[in-house]
Design a protein that fits this description.
This protein has 277 residues and is mainly α. The chain has one domain. 81% of the residues lie in helices and 0% in strands. The N terminus is likely disordered.
């Protein structure tokens, strides 16, 4: 008799847990697909989800976001190899090294600043960065073939280091891979084709994020990953599935349609994060 009385409550709890797992897997898959398709970590879309739908605090969401972005970035690169071969990526190793020279330092410093910001300030910073990235998606990306680089020689190298540093700071503050900033930088500064730029951005993003991730690990709030282990594993699984799908779709979705859509999503996400209490 007692078991019957408690059964409905148990069912409701189990259903709620099931919905949470399904939402984490589904959200990870959709965002992972976007990441695999464009060459991003997908963090800009995941962050409002973590804050709004799953009710994580700002810094907790940044740390969870960075972990999920690492999963997407690491898996998206090999999944995109059918369209953008590793040989083509390796041929441009000097560009990767140029950007990493600045982004690694930027990621380390940015992660340190993020742990010292007040929660409400971090919400505002996140929203402003999301809006900035939306503008870059609209104005910085180009659907045409690669054009001549803006600079060459030493000026290009200096500009690459400076751009990498700024992107590293943004990536650490927001817990993102930084692809929305890296891709237009690669296209405009180095004259790289948009599809190759997506894969090159992943090569820069992965070590940059690892540096920021290591810096965050020195903070006590990093324990959010262990405290939410099941959530992390479920969303990571969804992210890998999504990255695989996105990588397979590469080349079939027109950038002229996709990029404005992503920019609109970012603007809506920025508004939600800004208004979060």
């Amino acid at each position: 008799m007692s078991n019957r009385a408690t059964a409905p409550g148990s069912v409701r709890k189990a259903t709620a847990r099931g919905r949470g797992a399904a939402a984490a897997f589904g959200g990870g898959a959709v965002i992972g697909a976007l990441g695999g398709l464009i060459g991003l970590g997908g963090a800009e879309f995941r962050l409002p989800l973590l804050i709004g739908a799953f009710r994580f605090g700002a810094l907790q969401a940044v740390m969870l976001n960075k972990a999920m972005s690492l999963v997407v970035v690491a898996s998206a690169l090999p999944f995109r190899a059918a369209t953008v071969p590793f040989a083509a990526v390796a041929a441009h190793w000097t560009i990767i090294a140029n950007l990493l020279a600045g982004s690694l330092l930027g990621a380390w410093l940015g992660a340190g600043w993020a742990t010292r910001l007040a929660s409400q300030t971090l919400y505002r910073v996140i929203a402003a960065l999301l809006l900035s990235i939306a503008a870059i998606l609209m104005l910085g990306h180009d659907t045409k073939p690669a054009s001549d680089a803006l600079l060459a020689g030493p000026p290009q190298m200096v500009a690459g280091i400076a751009a990498g540093f700024a992107i590293g700071v943004v990536a650490a503050l927001l817990g993102v891979a930084g692809g929305e900033l890296l891709i237009p930088t690669l296209m405009l500064l180095f004259g790289v084709d948009v599809k190759l730029a997506g894969s090159l951005s992943l090569c820069v993003s992965l070590p940059t994020m690892l540096v920021g991730f290591f810096r965050y690990s020195r903070d006590d709030r990093f324990t959010v990953l262990g405290e939410n282990r099941r959530f992390v594993l479920v969303m990571a699984a969804g992210s890998i599935v999504g990255a695989f799908i996105g990588g397979r779709l590469l080349g079939f979705v027109a950038n002229a349609v996709l990029l404005p859509l992503l920019a609109v999503i970012l603007v809506l996400s920025a508004v939600k994060v800004w208004r979060h209490q």
